[in-house]
Specification:
5-stranded mixed beta sheet; globular
């Protein structure tokens, strides 16, 4: 039974193309896939993405399994090898890709909308996702590629800091599983584990299908049904557990000989769809997400010359995302830099932003946001997120309106409620003597 949901028309303004509209239509396929469709006829192009609840949070103790499965999807089916699959996409001018993060495994395709070109691409895409065979030689090759990447990451201070930070803030939660795996875990993944993961998670009931481009509703429904019907019906996995905040403030030290120390300070943030995300997003933009005009950039670079690059960011997901401040600083200035970063956050939490910073950040966010939706591909990402995270259809319009409506007290209150320095994690990757000499 199809579940029909009324469309909501989103109208916003682009500095390039004037008014833009995104009429998000939603329904459910006969096989149980959720579909979101935006009809846009500016170009004869269609972008399609299937997002499965099949990210690294589903690795279940085999770190890297979701990523390896995603990397292998285009490597062959029961009837065709990787070369034949690639040539079939190329024959019709289509571009296909796979991706895997903490929440999702995704397959995306861009093709011309002309039926004679698009229909064979859809058939190819459906066959690849549903009948991926994971040839043994491809498994071995992809495993070696992943191992090589992990070996190279061992010599990257930023990669070491990222992994240590995720482990520290997420603890025993599945989000702590590194998407790319570890040397030990990837070495241990065999073909059967990949096959089992694909059969469990790449199913119709576990799929969100997003379609943006030069189609009408009738053709979009036919495409969605074709893709969904090719998949086993399956069932959606159980929801992920909640993410808990660290019990206390902690510092993680990773010895690494270099002229600079990499620093990450932060903690879990909020989940996708939380009302607190809006003021936190604005507060983060003011603190370190707004480029060279942000507080951290000014204080760390312009005023003190401590670091060329200092920033902050906030993310959200199916469960709590993350808030983090990051920098690379001269070893002899590490203590001062930590003080500046922590004091800057404390000051923003305690006092809120100045009226000047608040207004400038709001203008920057609301003015640049429509430019992120100029292309079908950009819009596709937002539409996929709306479907996967069960966000309201007017999320994009609400985002701009909510940011514009916030004041300094909203930012201060959100930071005080959701960012607690007493539970923050500090990761230091640098020379042992340097990182052991600070708190």
């Amino acid at each position: 039974m199809r579940r029909l949901i009324p469309a909501i028309l989103l109208t916003f303004f682009s500095g390039v193309g004037g008014a833009m509209e995104a009429d998000i239509q939603e329904w459910e396929t006969e096989s149980g896939s959720r579909v979101l469709f935006v009809e846009r006829h500016e170009l004869p192009i269609v972008d399609i993405r299937l997002a499965f609840d099949a990210g690294s949070a589903r690795d279940d103790g085999q770190s890297g399994l979701a990523r390896m499965t995603s990397n292998l999807l285009l490597e062959g089916t029961t009837d065709r090898n990787a070369g034949e699959i690639a040539r079939e996409f190329e024959r019709y001018g289509a571009r296909v890709s796979t991706d895997s993060g903490r929440d999702t495994g995704q397959v995306s395709v861009r093709a011309l909308s002309e039926a004679e070109r698009l229909d064979p691409v859809i058939d190819n895409m459906a066959d690849v996702i549903a009948h991926a065979d994971f040839p043994g030689d491809a498994v071995d090759r992809v495993r070696q590629q992943m191992l090589l990447g992990l070996q190279q990451a061992e010599s990257s201070a930023s990669s070491l800091a990222e992994k240590a930070f995720a482990r520290a803030i997420y603890g025993d939660h599945p989000y702590a599983s590194p998407p790319g795996g570890t040397l030990e875990s990837v070495e241990a993944i065999d073909r059967q584990a990949v096959v089992d993961f694909h059969q469990r998670y790449y199913t119709a009931s576990n799929a969100t299908i997003a379609i943006v481009g030069d189609l009408d509703r009738v053709r979009a429904e036919a495409i969605a049904e074709r893709l969904s019907a090719a998949l086993p019906e399956g069932e959606a996995p159980a929801p992920l557990p909640e993410v808990e905040l660290p019990d206390a403030r902690q510092t993680v030290r990773v010895p690494f000989e270099a002229e600079q120390t990499h620093v990450i300070i932060g903690q879990p943030s909020v989940r996708q769809g939380s009302d607190a995300y809006y003021p936190l997003y604005l507060g983060n933009h003011i603190l370190g997400g707004g480029g060279l005009t942000s507080i951290l950039a000014e204080r760390m670079r312009e005023e003190r010359g401590l670091s060329y690059s200092s920033s902050s960011r906030i993310t959200s997901g199916a469960r709590r995302g993350r808030f983090q401040m990051a920098t690379q600083v001269r070893n002899d200035a590490l203590g001062e830099a930590l003080g500046v970063m922590r004091d800057s956050l404390d000051e923003l939490r305690d006092e809120g932003p100045s009226a000047e910073r608040l207004d400038a950040s709001k203008r920057n966010i609301t003015g640049s946001f429509p430019l992120q939706l100029d292309s079908n591909r950009d819009l596709l990402g937002y539409v996929t997120s709306i479907g996967f995270h069960d966000l309201p259809h007017d999320y994009l319009q609400r985002f701009v309106d909510r940011i514009d409506s916030l004041d300094g007290d909203d930012v201060r209150s959100a930071l005080q409620a959701h960012i607690d320095p007493a539970r923050s994690v500090t990761v230091l990757v640098g020379p042992e003597a340097t990182i052991n000499g600070v708190e």
